[in-house]
Design a protein that fits this description.
Blueprint (H helix, E strand, L loop, with lengths): L10 H135 L2 H19 L1
């Protein structure tokens, strides 16, 4: 047979073993009745917090990527808008320059026409004044040097020449 140590058979030792078993059973009962649920709930809360943190991190990374893409798109749009603005400005400048040149040409043509008309008017006035002065001088000269019969003869000759020229 197996020999049992006499210390293990004493009532004090047996009481200690029974106390230990009851203590462990009580701890197990309290753990399974109250502690396990609290620990499981706490662990599930921690798991949810970790999952939410991971989801927030993924969402933040996606938002960051979308923001970076938006920034790049905005940069490209800004460059394109500046290029379009420059081309529109150049086109507007060219159009305004052409319009100004055309307007200046119209003004110059109008001024040239006005100058031609004014020269013609002045020439006509000078011609009329010259004719009037020549006529006046011719009358004075004719009265002084030609007799009235000779004057009549010259007038008739001029009228006849005019009638032949126009008739």
């Amino acid at each position: 047979m197996i020999a049992i140590n006499p210390e293990y058979t004493t009532p004090v030792f047996i009481a200690k073993v029974v106390d230990f078993v009851l203590f462990v059973g009580g701890i197990y009962f309290v753990y399974t009745k109250y502690g396990k649920q609290a620990l499981v709930a706490h662990q599930e809360a921690q798991n949810r917090a970790v999952e939410e943190a991971v989801a927030n991190r993924e969402h933040s990374q996606a938002s960051l990527a979308a923001a970076a893409a938006s920034i790049e798109q905005a940069k490209a749009d800004a460059v394109r808008m500046v290029e379009v603005g420059r081309s529109q400005a150049a086109r507007l400048i060219e159009d305004e320059r052409k319009a100004a040149v055309e307007h200046a040409q119209r003004i110059a043509a109008h001024a040239a026409g006005e100058l031609r008309r004014e020269r013609y008017r002045v020439r006509r006035e000078l011609l009329e004044e010259t004719v009037e002065q020549a006529h006046a001088q011719a009358q004075v000269l004719a009265k002084r040097e030609l007799s009235p019969a000779r004057q009549e003869e010259l007038v008739e000759g001029v009228i006849a020449g005019l009638e032949r020229a126009h008739g």
